[in-house]
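Hi, here's the filled form for the chain we discussed.

Project: internal
Contact: R.S.
Residues: 239
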Amino acid sequence: MIADGDKIAIGVSGGKDSSALLAVLAAYKRFAPEKFDLLAVNIDLGFKETDPAEVQKLRDYCESVNVPLIVEHTQIAQIIFEERKEKSPCSLCSKMRRGALNSVAVANGCNKLALAHHADDILDTFFLSLLHEGRLSTFMPVSHMDRTGITLIRPFIYAEEKYLAGLCRRYDLPVVHNPCPEDKHTRREDMKDLVEDLDERFEGSKKLMLSALFNPERNNLWDKSLNYSPKGGKKDGEE
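And the returned structure, exactly as it came back:
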């Protein structure tokens, strides 16, 4: 994911996951065989309820680990909630935040963007795609965005959320609380609850589901080059 000469923008939302990513990459930079630079980027969505003291704590932490911080002020909250009055705002918000992140990364000469998606996010996204889109899909560890030339990396893809939360508590990492009215009331939260319910009902199922996603074998999934659709699909017994 990381190579000599990289300049990596870290998407720092202020949540525990991205604060943990900032801390880990800053620590790794001190002894890594690769020589690379880091830039922390926080997208200010424009919520008036954002606590300036929490943002200042983030600034102070970035200074303490020698990682420059850019706070990009936007009107995303106003556009989504006041102008467009979106009933399901999360998808549009995600696209606009990612666009803002990419713009700051490109403008500052970064060739990579690191996001703090972890193993639980991977599983939640899989169920979102399965149950709401009817497809098998989730995040990739590394992906290249042709339009911007930025390579997206997710260093925490194998780390479970509980370990990141523990890291934040142990080292008192800065957290900027999310004032969004939709926070904790999204489809993604529904998927988190579903996964936890399954894990309680079938002990150990969460680890097994993660193992299935990480397993390179994809046995018995239909060959997508063949037509198995209800209208043109093959019947049982046909070769």
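Let me know if anything looks off before we file it.
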